[in-house]
């Protein structure tokens, strides 16, 4: 029981670290923060943050859980053979954390949150402001964050000149 | 044509066989295979006829002998080439993009995640498929290759624009011609339409991956980790964070090694990915300075000596 408690505490810590992840400015199909928060909130036994909770069970869309339910009700889901399914199941790593595994997760996440590798392996302005195209990264970031909208001329220039 | 070797376990010798003639040159007695009287003999024979595929030393592009790792140009061709370069004053830095970025740099990206069903995994492939538990599929191989190519792109952007751009172009061109070949030959797809579709798919995957990694590289480790999760790990839910951590460390350390190289060295193809088992320590300021001076001295002497062939000359800087 005590180890179970420790795993729960660890999961709570993971959730706290995950909350430090920046919001993605660019919307992708899947969000790391959202899926992982959902995953570890369940282990930690804390309710999902409000914003996420409304996102997860969409009203019009079929949720992942509903699809899973439908798939599981048939005898051979997706028309696959039983041994194939077993193989697929075996290939997916499962969420059963031991105390030490949870500790590893926490150290790994805190390394990322603290920017450990970016600071240690500092590449300097040589790569951050590359000689061939010094504004390259700044332009991408500005565009994502909506700070600076480029006009069509600048866009055309990039198309023809390459930078 | 793939080379295949057949091992005779009893004699402990390795016979090299080529293609169809395999059965002819390798003299075993086919009748004994069907013998029902001696079961042990049967088992022995089975062992002997087992074929092992070995791609080591074979051309990178199948059917093109010039892509064999130990290939040497005939002397007269070499001399003619040097003469042409000298008389027309060709820009070698531009020409070199093909053999360096298109051939060499592509080959090191490709072999990182390369795996065949009946061959043991290389050390780098072990890291990706065993340590990180990635599925052994073609598209996974592409993602691994794309990650390494992106790392090279980052360094290529720091070269003078004209040259860096050309290097990137050559690397991408080679990637897609090779993918097309692999889909036809190795994945046994016979429909050109499907191969086209896959190529387009891989093209958009590469664009997306480069964009996401660029943002991650410039901002912070968490963004880079999410980019890695989305691309390399296919956005799977049950991700082990230690794996993400390891990949981010791998990327940052490789980029660090690249950032300490001068344009000249990088453009000449002196870079190779540091094996995952080796730990990369940061250089102290003094060591860095020492290394820099050594490189400057080496290339200054080479440039002044006049011993360089026209094809070895380069105008790229060696002091950055």
From TrEMBL, chain A:
Gene Ontology terms: cellular component: Cbp3p-Cbp6 complex
GO molecular function: ribosome binding
GO biological process terms held by the UniProt record: mitochondrial respiratory chain complex III assembly
Domain of life: Eukaryota
Protein name (Swiss-Prot/TrEMBL): Cytochrome B pre-mRNA-processing protein 6
Species this protein is from: Maudiozyma exigua (Yeast)
From TrEMBL, chain B:
GO BP of this protein: mitochondrial respiratory chain complex III assembly
Chain ranges of the Ubiquinol-cytochrome c chaperone domain: 130-273
InterPro entries in alphabetical order: Ubiq_cyt_c_chap, Ubiqinol_cyt_c_chaperone_CPB3
Cellular component aspect of the GO annotation: mitochondrion
Source organism superkingdom: Eukaryota
Family, similarity comment: Belongs to the CBP3 family.
Stored PANTHER family: UBIQUINOL-CYTOCHROME C REDUCTASE COMPLEX ASSEMBLY FACTOR 1 FAMILY MEMBER, UBIQUINOL-CYTOCHROME-C REDUCTASE COMPLEX ASSEMBLY FACTOR 1
Name this polypeptide is given: Protein cbp3, mitochondrial
